[in-house]
Every structure is written in C-alpha cells, then in structure tokens.
C-alpha cells in the first residue's frame, strides 16, 4: 500500500482532515518557509494527530542538538532532512530519518547509496526555499534507477490530478505533497481528501 505524507500543515482542521482521509504521515516545517511553525505551535498541532499517523519534522541544515530537542518536545516520529546533511550526520541521529534529495540528473540519485536512512525523498530542485516549489522532476530518472530496495518517497509537483499516474509509473513506497494540496497558499481541505484518495487508488 502506497504511503501518503501531507506536509506543511498549520491548523487543526487540515490535520484532522488528512488523518480521517487516511494519510500515513503529517509533516511540520521547522525551516525557513511560508509554512514554518514554531516549536510551541507544532506541539499543540501534534496533539491533534492520531497515534497511527506518524509525525515528521522537516529541517534544513539544523544542528543536531536543536533537532533532538524539538523531537522530544513535539513528540516527532521521524526527522526529514532537506539540506546538505552528510551521511555521517544522518548516522548520528537516534531517530528514523527521511533524507531529501533534489533530482536533476541520475547523478543526484547515485548519492542515495551513501546514506542509510528509513526513507529517501526524491524532490525537484529547490526554489526559494528547500522543497515545496511545486514542480515535478523527470520521473523517468526514478523509473529506470535501481534503488536496491531502498524506500523511496516521491515529491515535487504532485497534485490530486497527477498523483495516481506518479504512483503507477514510479511505484514509490510513498508520495509527499505540500503546495499541491493548497489554494492561494493555504491548505485546501477538499484537495487533501482528493490527493489521498487518488494516491491510494493509483496502485490499483
């Protein structure tokens, strides 16, 4: 069953909608972004996340001590790293890790071999901020690459309209969306429902 991660959630209604619709992960952004939340906000929002849904904190080139403190305070299940973190840095973290990679060419995918983590998030090249620029990379790169059973999450430019196709073509372990379920920069309840439904249907 393909897993779905809805990222950049900032209010109770969006979290409950995503959880009710069957999301597997909910992401809180602690890096510079229009979706950035404070530790206090995230702690409150995390209280609305059911126990079967995993809470993910998104960080960019953050210090290990800061990450550890936020994980404990908020009660995060996963840490998602969107910066230039090294394999050594990832290995030092005592939590499940999702490492993001910006995919421009097959050479970018070759980096995955050096990293040992729970999920490998393939994203399009960064816009103003790391991640979340709403554009897809060339899925053909991922379709032909041998990931050696590494668990891949597909991100970048996914929407309720194209996620089923992405799941069928790339066959990722999961999909990750943020701007693709927004209207005018705000999370859209209907789009969240449609995205999760389409992603789960995509593998049929």
TrEMBL record:
Family classification: Belongs to the TrpF family.
Q: What is its EC number?
A: 5.3.1.24
Kindly list the GO molecular function terms attached to this UniProt entry: phosphoribosylanthranilate isomerase activity
Record-linked InterPro entries: Aldolase_TIM, PRAI_dom, RibuloseP-bd_barrel, TrpF_fam
Per UniProt, the keywords (alphabetical) are: Amino-acid biosynthesis, Aromatic amino acid biosynthesis, Isomerase, Tryptophan biosynthesis
Determine if Lyase is one of this entry's keywords.
Answer: no
Matching entries from HAMAP family are given as: PRAI (MF_00135)
**Which PANTHER family does UniProt cross-reference here?**
N-(5'-PHOSPHORIBOSYL)ANTHRANILATE ISOMERASE
Q: Which organism is it from?
A: Gracilibacillus halotolerans
| Identification of the protein by name | N-(5'-phosphoribosyl)anthranilate isomerase
Gene of this entry: trpF
């Amino acid at each position: 069953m393909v897993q779905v991660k809805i990222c950049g959630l900032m209010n109770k209604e969006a979290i409950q909608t995503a959880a009710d619709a069957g999301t597997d992960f909910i992401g809180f952004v602690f890096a510079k972004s229009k979706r950035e939340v404070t530790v206090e906000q995230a702690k409150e929002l995390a209280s609305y996340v059911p126990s079967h849904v995993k809470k993910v904190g998104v960080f960019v080139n953050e210090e290990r001590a800061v990450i550890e403190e936020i994980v404990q305070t908020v009660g995060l299940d996963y840490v998602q790293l969107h910066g230039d973190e090294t394999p050594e840095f990832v290995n030092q973290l005592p939590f499940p890790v999702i490492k993001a990679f910006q995919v421009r060419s097959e050479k970018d995918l070759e980096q995955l071999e050096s990293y040992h983590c729970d999920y490998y998030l393939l994203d399009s090249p960064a816009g103003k901020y790391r991640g979340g620029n709403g554009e897809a990379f060339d899925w053909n790169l991922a379709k032909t690459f041998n990931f050696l059973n590494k668990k891949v999450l597909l991100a970048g430019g996914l929407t309720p309209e194209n996620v089923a196709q992405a799941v069928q073509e790339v066959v990722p372990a999961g999909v990750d969306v943020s701007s693709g379920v927004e209207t005018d920069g705000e999370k859209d309840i209907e789009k969240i429902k449609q995205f999760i439904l389409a992603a789960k249907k995509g593998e049929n």
